[in-house]
Write a structure and sequence with these properties.
Shape: elongated
Largest sheet: 4 strands, parallel
CATH architecture: 3-Layer(aba) Sandwich
Structural class: alpha/beta
Distance between the termini: 73 Å
CATH class: Alpha Beta
CATH topology: Rossmann fold
Strand content: 5-15%
Helix content: 25-40%
Low-confidence stretches: none
Bound molecules: iron/sulfur cluster
Number of helices: 5
């Protein structure tokens, strides 16, 4: 077809680009906010920062309709099965943001009850640093997710790691400063 004859109101593109554009522009966050980072997450949706500019302001506690899990705050070993259950209920394709030092590394809570990074138990796409991260930082994280979606194939590349359903830490505790022996699995550290 002679493109010179196409009228101005016709746009040609690829199906992949249209689908990814729709996905990136209508992200539906599922907030899992357990601590102070949750306050910054709420602020991100407020009028001052206006997450609606990125089409991602519809936060509902509704995993089956959500496609962006935002974990904000520390997660304990008792909470992990609940978080994994929520992740499993979400629709594919889905993405995960680990917001703040606690969700990504355990933060200052270097204790047996706190997960030292949710990525030991579930796939994470973007880590948002800070304690707490400011709303602008979270928005940058959401824009990073949008860039990931832009480059995704159709269907999505399917490079996700399988969910680790066994709820047990995969890290070794650090040596204790006072020389108190720590026993892990019958082994004295
Ligand atoms: S990273 Fe800092 S602000 Fe966020 S939950 Fe942990 S202690 Fe609170």
């Amino acid at each position: 077809m002679d493109t010179q004859t196409l009228p101005d109101n016709v746009l040609t593109t690829q199906l992949k680009k249209v689908v990814n554009w729709a996905r990136r522009s209508s992200l539906w966050p599922m907030p899992f906010a357990t601590a102070c980072c949750g306050i910054e997450l709420m602020a991100t949706a407020s009028s001052r920062f206006d997450l609606a500019r990125f089409g991602a302001e519809a936060m509902r506690f509704s995993p089956r309709q959500s496609d962006l899990l935002i974990v904000a705050g520390r997660v304990t070993i008792k909470m992990m099965p609940v978080l994994q259950h929520i992740y499993q209920q979400m629709t594919e394709p889905k993405w995960v943001i680990s917001m703040g030092a606690c969700a990504s590394t355990g933060g200052v809570f270097d204790v047996y009850a706190t997960i030292q990074g949710i990525d030991q138990f579930m796939p994470v796409d973007v880590y948002v640093p800070g304690c707490p991260p400011r709303p602008e930082t979270l928005i940058e994280g959401i824009m990073a997710i949008q860039r990931i979606i832009d480059e995704d194939g159709l269907p999505p590349a399917g490079k996700r790691r399988p969910l680790q359903l066994a709820v047990e830490p995969s890290y070794s505790p650090a040596a204790q400063p006072l020389g108190i022996p720590v026993t892990v699995g019958g082994k004295v550290l």
